[in-house]
């Protein structure tokens, strides 16, 4: 395999001036981070590291608590890299000190298995979250070091990783095993990249290769059912896997680590498995919003084309976040814009839907339809919540929201890719670049090369998969180069101006006819944005609405949404019954009217209301 | 309240000559009963009554085993009342002897709580099935006596019921309690009617009144959660209940007992509760097939209009059977044909769908749509199965299939109601009557009064709710009487001939617009029959099918179904995509073609195939 050797942009190098990322990142700084730290304090997730919990006391450290705090800390590092804040930094340092104090002499670091069930250390990799927590702590340590130059947590996690490496492996005296909840694989790669210590790359590769290896560790040692190990992607060797199966967050975390290892070890078989699994997800098991894992029970992938929109659907926020991480790794290996299309789809739709504009409330489940019958099974509330017992999603948002900056660009030693052209300035080793425009609401963007570190620097501009028609001009001269893998490669110099117009008409989208839930229905998209109708804007009803696809749609503003938000208005028919019978042979009247659709990610920001992405059409 | 004091026909008094009931009852005799007895033997359900199970042995008697055998025995009694069979009767008598031998000196009779967990007798009414098993054994005892004149099992169950009555009640020294799985309420009424012993009526009424009474027994004594008792209809007093909630089989068994007690005790409040609950079911929570309980998890009612057709749906066979029992009781109180409409809807559609034409295989779940994505949650097989670990449905079919004869007529001391006009002859205390015709495939029926025990006997003919147009003539003279409560009341004498033509055009049915699953879809009905499209007859696809409702439909025969079966053919369009993209902005082609629909109850009798009741329409 051949890798393009690209990396994502580094958070502090990208300053956004746009209307979507900027607002979201500010809300993360002002609301998400403080409220998450407060929740970690109040629920006991911070004080657990004092290791003074005793049986009978409340706030018993849970197996996944460490991961929550680690994710918040990683988020704090991301945010501090954007907004220096002495008070926040002090709080951050104190928590790191506390965590460091909880590390055991052998390097072990886990509150639950130190104070609650010490006898179970490494005994239940399948069900418990020991290596998962370790992975998140490692990521937090790497972020502290790379973004803030703080070495204390890095040293802690290196010591912990060294200890883990002394426990697991094929070598004599080590035990076999792989995490039940994947995460440490990708974390070890980050640690390897931050430290250069190949031990971590090797350990990550071990965990990946061990997964599904016969005799199956989970089955033989931990007594998991043969047919249950598929839920954690451990039914066969990862290189042989073809369908994205099981718990969807675990799956995409694993695939991210696989892609990392494939790139670093030039492992073509592993890369091909990643390609297959990516196709399985994006061609057969992904919502139009970029959400994945359609089953509430088990938070799982189900079957090809099983993408129900309501009662039982899931599309966990964390899963879409993980998909972006996986896709970004594949993008950096291949330079193929299809991966950036997926990243963009999930970010602007199925991920940002998971967090309120205020940054304070979160969806675990990202419904595509909320109606009066929704929610019998999925006991989640109709509105976003500030925290959950299992609070993986809010804490993931702490780190993901600032992390969005990374995905704007990819960079290597000698080239640059503009992935998501939100307004931003990007200063890096190759120069300084500014993107202006109103993306994602406007496809007109201007790229100014403020400073290029070398002549004729290759700068590739992504032409999104949704864009059928565009114009591109460099210094006023039309560019005739055709896109390759979805990117138009230009060669730029200091002072260059590139003008790009990605036309974004409203598109009437349909699902593959194998998706039973969506037949007869359309969804509206404009540019990368998926639209949804909320009952609050459509008082004549949603499930009785039939969009007149032959009418012309217009772009409108809707009260109560951020000023720049572009919404869609058009004609619709509203079915009306002649009576209230449950079943009738009477025909329905079709009353002509209008509909209004808003960007899906912004739904449920104006109170409790029904919503639908897929609407019937004539 | 005023009751019409009607009863259902007695099984031996009705001889059917039709093409649906007769075939089904024969299959029950030839296949269902023998295979169920065999399963009861092989699984240990019969030998459990030897009471020789010891810890460590296999075939540990399960808490619901006794009920399965009791239901099969009741089915055998029903069948023997139709088809005398010495071999079957011998087997039946031997099983009864064995059961009688297992009765404890105090009257107690339960295999599980005698040999497996004797210390738990009456300790867990909510979760275990002790009183439920007792109820089914009582029903078996009554059937043995009433249909075959056999008193042994009746004596056993009287002794058992007397013992139960000595245990439960409000009187000093008795304990409070009500069944977690209702059933004994209606069984005790049957026992009361068979014996005249008011003790059983009183005990039934006690169980009904106890349910939900504060302080809640299940909560206070058994430690069930406050919010969990709703699953067993014990959240408030039954008289105050308005929505059909919780486990659907338990619900309709309870409501049946409530209707019985209301009629016998002239309890208007109880009757009104029954009316409310019946409306809750039939106006908001019932499939068009008469199936109820839409949630796979918990086998429950969910929310109004939550009637999904596939992935998570349930519509347990037993629940539809229980609904018929409940509706029949309401019919006999009121003489209102709306109840007979529901009985007929469930019998011809959502109940007969649960059993193969051969009588050997059963659905627990009665899907309204089976497609390639169905079945991730509901682990049931796509095809009917011969038996289940929890085998309530097959054993319920043993008794229900012959029981269908009962529902054909209602009778009191001085009047007769023809509820379901399948071809049959009915000889009873009021005379002898013959119905000819091809119902339910043909609406033309002829009723001959072979013998009337009195002059001008009131005979009421049901004009089904689905029938908009009919003609009725008595002895060649057109009858002008309008139907009252859905029945036209005639006064007949020996030798009279009544000719009735219930027109049954094909009807295009729609769901209430509050049912999200069915918007934009139609179902076809003809007479009482709901139709469904099977993939085997529609090779161009089901979920991409759009029925052209403006085309004329024709009645056709379809190979592989019983000869008399009338199917429907018409025009449809088949959507075809231009590529295999998961989401596309390309339009679909609509290829004109035809569709074929068969009676829903007959689906899945020609191999594994997809199916749908609700189909899109233009």
Question: Would you give an account of this structure?
Answer:
- The structure is a homodimer of 618-residue chains.
- The first copy, chain A, has four domains: 22-236, no CATH class; 241-401, Glycosyltransferase (Alpha/alpha barrel), CATH 1.50.10; 412-502, Maltose phosphorylase, domain 3; 506-617, no CATH class.
- The first copy, chain A, has 14 helices and 23 strands.
- Chain A has helices spanning 21-43, 65-80, 86-101, 111-116, 130-148, 152-167, 184-195, 198-210, 217-220, 248-265, 268-284, 317-334, 337-351, 392-403, and strands spanning 7-8, 14-16, 369-370, 409-411, 416-418, 424-428, 431-437, 444-452, 457-462, 470-474, 477-478, 487-492, 497-502, 506-511, 521-526, 529-534, 545-547, 554-556, 567-576, 583-584, 589-599, 611-612, 615-617.
- In chain A, the strands form three sheets. Chain A has a seven-stranded antiparallel β-sheet with strand order 2-6-7-8-13-10-11, with no helix packed on it. Chain A has a six-stranded mixed barrel with strand order 15-16-21-19-17-23.
- In chain A, a hairpin with a 2-residue loop joins strand 6 and strand 7 (431-437).
- The radius of gyration of chain A is 24 Å and the shape is globular.
- Chain A starts with 6 loop residues before the first strand and ends with a strand.
């Amino acid at each position: 395999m051949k890798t393009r050797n690209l990396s994502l942009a580094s958070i502090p190098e990208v300053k956004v001036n746009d209307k979507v990322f900027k607002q979201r990142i500010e809300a993360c700084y002002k609301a998400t981070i403080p409220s998450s730290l407060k929740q970690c304090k109040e629920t006991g997730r911070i004080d657990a590291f004092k290791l003074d919990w005793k049986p009978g006391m409340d706030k018993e450290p849970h197996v996944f608590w460490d991961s929550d705090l680690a994710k918040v800390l990683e988020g704090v590092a991301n945010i501090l890299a954007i907004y220096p804040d002495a008070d926040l930094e002090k709080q951050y340092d104190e928590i790191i000190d506390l965590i460091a104090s909880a590390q055991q002499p052998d390097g072990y670091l886990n509150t639950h298995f130190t104070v609650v069930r010490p006898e179970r250390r490494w005994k239940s990799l399948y069900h418990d979250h020991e290596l998962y927590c370790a992975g998140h702590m490692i990521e937090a340590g790497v972020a502290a070091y790379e973004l803030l130059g703080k070495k204390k947590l890095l040293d802690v996690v290196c010591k912990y990783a060294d200890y883990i490496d002394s426990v697991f492996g094929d070598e004599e005296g080590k035990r076999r095993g792989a995490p039940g909840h994947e995460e440490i694989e990708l974390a070890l790669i980050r640690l390897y990249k931050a430290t250069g210590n190949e031990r971590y790359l090797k350990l990550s590769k071990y965990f990946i290769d061990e997964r599904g290896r016969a005799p199956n560790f989970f089955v033989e040692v931990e007594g998991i059912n043969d047919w249950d190990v598929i839920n954690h992607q451990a039914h066969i060797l990862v290189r042989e896997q073809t369908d994205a199966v099981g718990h969807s967050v675990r799956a995409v975390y694993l695939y991210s680590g696989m892609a990392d290892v494939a790139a670093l070890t030039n492992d073509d078989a592993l890369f091909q498995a990643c390609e297959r699994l990516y196709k399985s997800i994006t061609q057969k098991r992904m919502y139009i919003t970029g959400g994945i894992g359609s089953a509430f029970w088990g938070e799982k992938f189900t079957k090809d084309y099983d993408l129900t929109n309501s009662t039982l659907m899931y599309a966990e926020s964390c899963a879409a976040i993980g998909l972006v991480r996986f896709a970004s790794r594949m993008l950096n290996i291949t330079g193929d814009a299809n991966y950036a299309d997926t990243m963009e789809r999930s970010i602007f739709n199925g991920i940002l839907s998971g967090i309120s504009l205020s940054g304070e409330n979160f969806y675990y489940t990202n419904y595509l339809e909320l109606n009066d019958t929704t929610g019998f099974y999925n006991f989640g509330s109709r509105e976003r919540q500030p925290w959950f017992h299992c609070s993986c999603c809010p804490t993931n948002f702490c780190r993901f929201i600032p992390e969005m900056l990374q995905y704007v660009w990819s960079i290597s030693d000698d080239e640059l890719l503009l992935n998501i052209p939100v307004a931003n300035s990007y200063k890096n080793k190759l120069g300084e670049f500014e993107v202006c425009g109103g993306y994602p609401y406007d496809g007109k963007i201007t790229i100014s090369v403020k400073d290029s570190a070398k002549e004729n620097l290759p700068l590739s501009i992504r032409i999104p998969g949704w864009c059928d028609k565009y114009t591109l001009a460099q210094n006023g001269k039309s560019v005739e180069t055709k896109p390759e893998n979805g990117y138009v490669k230009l060669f730029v110099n200091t002072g260059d101006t590139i003008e790009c117009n990605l036309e974004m008409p409203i598109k009437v989208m349909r699902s593959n006819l194998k998706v039973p839930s969506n037949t007869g229905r359309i969804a509206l998209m404009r540019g990368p944005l998926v639209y949804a109708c909320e009952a609050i804007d459509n008082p004549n009803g949603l499930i009785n609405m039939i969009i007149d696809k032959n009418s012309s749609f217009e772009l409108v503003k809707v009260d109560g949404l951020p000023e720049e938000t572009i919404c869609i208005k058009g004609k619709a028919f509203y079915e009306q019954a002649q009576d209230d019978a449950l079943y009738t042979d009477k025909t329905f009247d079709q009353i002509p009217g209008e509909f209004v659709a808003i960007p899906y990610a912004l739904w449920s920001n104006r109170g409790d209301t029904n919503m639908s992405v897929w609407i019937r059409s004539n």
